[in-house]
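Dear H.,

Thanks for agreeing to be a second pair of eyes. The structure we're designing against is below in token form, covering all 302 positions.
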């Protein structure tokens, strides 16, 4: 499978520049996917440098890089620090995470990530996981479903969607994309259909893959794994993720609560590399429309 088919990396040049790659450095690509960013990082490394590419989806293994400077780690990046200990790595010089969903997932009609195809409502990044979208729709309470659609999908009609799902599932299981569309479409504005359906599917995907918790785990563990002067580059695609990253970079906590010492200096483990968030150029969006909502933030550990 070619890299272009699997995924086109967003903000490629900006990520590589932001990591300030050293030829003898140790790096982590927490979201290997098609290997686009990883290949760029490896191209900078000499015999002393190394890159560890994490991906919980075994499909990504087919894209691994044939280089002594690369190790594929079949794992969720939530276990970053454990695997660095396993590989006897004390500190790394940079960590990259592109939190977007690979084209491969959106375009594989068997995985259930997209409303463009009818198929099984799965949405698991790790196909050995026990929770899929069918289970969420079948077992979650109306209140919990409403919370997911509101918090993770930012949908104003979250309660109506949840009520409709609970009513529909009392008559028949919701197991396919088309069945879910039949339930939610009456509550979606026709002019906003693509956007709102994407929000519904995003909310379910975030819940199935516990994406907020694993992002928090990555950010927290980066403090242990990064050496002083090491850089952390994160690409987010929705406001909930971006807010967490922004708060953590500025204050070292997820609430964004700034603490100051006796002299009024802000206590933070990071120095911002880019004070203003980096977004794709018009040329990149035209070339790769799926990059349009990407936001890159980079910080350096103090």
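And this is the sequence the design step returned. I haven't edited it by hand at all.
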């Amino acid at each position: 499978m070619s890299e272009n088919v699997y995924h086109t990396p967003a903000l490629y040049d900006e990520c590589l520049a932001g990591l300030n790659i050293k030829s003898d450095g140790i790096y982590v690509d927490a979201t290997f996917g098609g290997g686009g960013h990883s290949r760029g990082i490896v191209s900078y490394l000499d015999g002393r440098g190394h890159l560890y590419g994490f991906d919980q989806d075994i499909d990504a293994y087919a894209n691994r890089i044939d280089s002594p400077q690369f190790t594929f780690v079949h794992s969720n990046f939530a276990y970053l620090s454990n695997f660095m200990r396993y590989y006897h790595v004390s500190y790394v010089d940079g960590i990259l995470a592109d939190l977007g969903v690979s084209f491969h997932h959106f375009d594989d009609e068997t995985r259930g990530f997209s409303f463009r195809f009818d198929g099984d409502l799965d949405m698991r990044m790790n196909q050995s996981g026990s929770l899929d979208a069918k289970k969420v729709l079948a077992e979650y309470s109306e209140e919990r479903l409403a919370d997911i659609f509101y918090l993770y999908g930012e949908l104003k009609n979250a309660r109506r969607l949840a009520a409709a799902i609970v009513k529909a599932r009392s008559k028949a299981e919701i197991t396919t994309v088309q069945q879910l569309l039949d339930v939610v479409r009456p509550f979606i504005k026709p002019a906003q259909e693509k956007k709102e359906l994407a929000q519904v599917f995003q909310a379910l995907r975030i819940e199935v893959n516990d994406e907020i918790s694993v992002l928090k785990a990555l950010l927290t563990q980066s403090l242990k794994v990064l050496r002083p002067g090491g850089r952390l580059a994160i690409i987010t695609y929705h406001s909930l993720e971006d807010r967490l990253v922004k708060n953590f970079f500025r204050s070292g906590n997820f609430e964004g609560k700034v603490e100051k010492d006796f002299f009024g200096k802000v206590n933070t483990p990071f120095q911002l590399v880019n004070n203003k968030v980096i977004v794709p150029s018009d040329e990149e969006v035209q070339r790769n429309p799926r990059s349009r909502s990407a936001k890159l933030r980079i910080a350096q550990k103090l």
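Two observations from my side: The two ends are 40 Å apart (CA to CA). The first helix runs from residue 3 to 6.

Warmly,
E.
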